Amino acid sequence: MASVVSSNEHSGSSDNHCNPFPAATKDHHQPLPRHPEDPAAALANSRHEFGEHGGVNMSIEASATFTVMEPETMRRMFTGELGPDRDFFFYSRHFNPTVLNLGRLMASLEGTEAAYCTASGMSAVSSVLLQLCSAGGHVVASRTLYGGTHTLLTHFLPRTCNITTSFVDIRDHEALCRMAHDKGITAVVDNTFAPMFVSPARLGADIVVHSMSKFISGAADLIAVKKRLSRVDGIETESWPGTICHDVLIGYLAPSGAVCGPESFVNSLMDTRDGSLMLLGPTMNPKVAFELAGRLPHLGLRMKEHCNRALVYATRMKKLGLKVIYPGLEDHPDHATLKSMAIKEYGYGGLLCVDMETEERANRLMKLLQNCSQFGLVAVSLGYYDTLMSCSGSSTSSELSKEEKEQSGISPGLIRMSIGFNGTLEQKWSQFEMALSRMQDSTKV
């Protein structure tokens, strides 16, 4: 979980669009009661969208544009008199019914008034920052941001918008939010790593962003189907009996993001005159929204197992003498802080780090874990059902300078593990021990 606070705010409300997120008006700079509702319960209590013909699943609205019965209606939609709250849509870059429903579910998950979903996590982050900050604005951000966000703040925004950033150590998110609100500054939290077990908005954050292709998706971004195709007169068709067939994988890459926050801010993102989502157009595919909406109901079950195994493995790895970094361990410097913030039923997160000190030793262990014992896969990203491993300094945080990596606690041999839940816990642990034993044996020769 990483935080950004931004000043020089220029857009937090929008008056020219109807509100598709009806909710009670509240003071967004006042934190809600601590953990008033389990996110899983909030999801279960959210509005269920049925399919067009009564199906238990919502329909996919794949249209880019929408018709109206009366020409005068078009003018009323563009002035904001009519909108998605009354089932009036004009173009899917603005609001799409399927994506809008996923946004309502994300708002329930995070305990915010509203949410809308985007084509990627980075599009969510960049759209929020561009909506909040004008040219010459300033951002105060955590040193431990995702590498892509760090690069956006250190290189892209200064070059294109003269928006500058100060990086600081942020450990107490509630104190950060209080401090920001005292100064009239918006607090933004990236909760990609901590869905379900930490609810930043319930702890005072104004805006919460997600990369939904991680834990929320749980499927490593690719949704695919296999079809049997045949070639007849040079044209590929679905196979018929007696034809020569071959298998192909047909699918779509599905990076996805979300912005959760006050209804006024989410609506401002869609303003036809200066909304960053509307004008920059990082539109989520409604087919992706449909898939993600079907995965949210079991996110809580998945997160509990991710977190449980991460704690068990971290505890056992430490007993083996490895240098383990995991906030669920009592000797972690931020254990007490996270314990006070987290919803205890879910644990302390599904990611841990093992510091092998050098990149060579880290790569050797990961190679054995993947190719010899099948403990996990060497890959970036996180939240997959199998364990994913990568050397952060040479992959997802490679954009950082040597000094920035040191300040963030990223050593050359730091292995980030996103702990999966496939197989049994003991089966996967024995695979880890096997690989570690082989590595230790090879160093003795």
Automatic annotation (TrEMBL):
InterPro entries: Cys/Met-Metab_PyrdxlP-dep_enz, PyrdxlP-dep_Trfase, PyrdxlP-dep_Trfase_major, PyrdxlP-dep_Trfase_small. The modification N6-(pyridoxal phosphate)lysine is found at residue 214. Residues 25-38 have a biased composition (Basic and acidic residues). The keyword DNA damage does not apply. One of its GO terms (biological process) is transsulfuration. Keywords: Pyridoxal phosphate. It comes from the Eukaryota. Residues 1-17 have a biased composition (Low complexity). One of its GO terms (molecular function) is pyridoxal phosphate binding. It holds the Pfam family Cys_Met_Meta_PP. SUPFAM superfamilies: PLP-dependent transferases. Its cofactor is pyridoxal 5'-phosphate. Belongs to the trans-sulfuration enzymes family. This is Methionine-gamma-lyase. It comes from Salvia splendens (Scarlet sage). The lineage of its organism: Eukaryota, Viridiplantae, Streptophyta, Embryophyta, Tracheophyta.
